[in-house]
Amino acid sequence: MDKDMKADSGAARAGLYMRQLSGYRAFIPAPLPPVPPIRINAPLMAALSQADRALGRLDGSIHTLPHPDLFVAMYVRKEAVLSSQIEGTQSSLQDVLAAEAKILTPGLPADVDEVLNYVAAMNYGLDRLRELPVSTRLIREIHKRLLHNVRGGNLTPGELRRTQNWIGPRGCTINEATFVPPPPDVVPQAMADLEKFLHSESDLPLLIRIGLAHAQFETIHPFLDGNGRVGRLLITLLLCEQKALTRPVLYLSHYFKRRRQAYYDHLQAVRDEGAWERWLHFFLRGVYEVSQQATETARRILSLREQHRDLITAELGRSAANGHRVLEYLYRSPIITVARVRDLIGVTSPAANELVARFQEHGILHEITGQKRNRRFAYQSYIDLFHTD
Question: Which residues form the Fido domain (predicted)?
Answer without folding.
Answer: 134-285
